[in-house]
Amino acid sequence: xxxxxxxxxxxxxxxxxxxxxxxxxxxxxxxxxxxxxxxxxxxxxxxxxxxxxxxxxxxxxxxx
Length: 64
Known about the structure:
This protein is mainly beta. The chain is 0% helix and 45% strand. It has a two-stranded antiparallel ribbon with strand order 1-2. Strands 3-4 form a two-stranded antiparallel sheet. A hairpin with a 2-residue loop joins strand 1 and strand 2 (10-16). The chain is elongated and about 40 Å long. The protein starts with a strand and ends with a strand.
């Protein structure tokens, strides 16, 4: 689960609450109702199979 972080009503970033697992490639991130918002996820891989392929962070690359 990823939460939107806002400041004064504007989206300023994202908080990864639960990065899930099993991603074999980086997922596309979108914000419903805000097609102008662009974000990039980072997926990590490691030895812990229960967390392998999880989203570690989401960065805002284009603000509204």
